[in-house]
Design a protein that fits this description.
The chain is an alpha+beta fold. It has helices at 3-38, 40-51, 57-68, and strands at residues 93-97, 100-104, 110-112, 117-125, 129-136, 141-150, 157-158, 163-167, 171-178, 181-182.
Amino acid sequence: MNKRIQKRLVLKRNIKIWISKFCISIILFLVGMIFVKKNPSSKQWLSQKIFEDSLPFQQMQVLYEKYFGNALSIDKMVSKTEPVFHESFSYESVEAYQNGAKVKVENHLAIPALESGVVIYVGEKEDLGETIAIEQVDGVVTYYSHLHTVHKNLYDYVEKGEVLGEAFDDEVYLAFQKKGEYLNYQDYL
């Protein structure tokens, strides 16, 4: 079979798959809206889940990829690249601080991600300085604070060991949270 014909068939198949995923998403959305319209308690539950609770982006991505594949199937067209920096988090000492830990590191150390996940917060936190928060696959949110620079944007996916930013001086503050409760930092460092 001619390569040109094969490419057309693959393109047609991919378009059909994309259209079917889109239609299923629309149907699910409409069914959900009808359910919310007919049942007032479901409207209250939905608004609490959306506006008050933290959405588990990483878990949703894993489920989506399991049942529907990648959101965009361009990863076959784009060649994979490996990060230049891929190190573990090294530190001199750790002590309890507020809801997490104050970690003594080298001055202006490049801070790697402890685990893979999605960036859910980038900004200034009171008393902690520049902060980045990563939601991991297991639902744990790790806060990295007291940073000089942050190299990631909101909703970026980061791999374990990938650089998140640079320490402001020789201290970094870490906190671990799951479902609104702070966890013991010793379980993660």
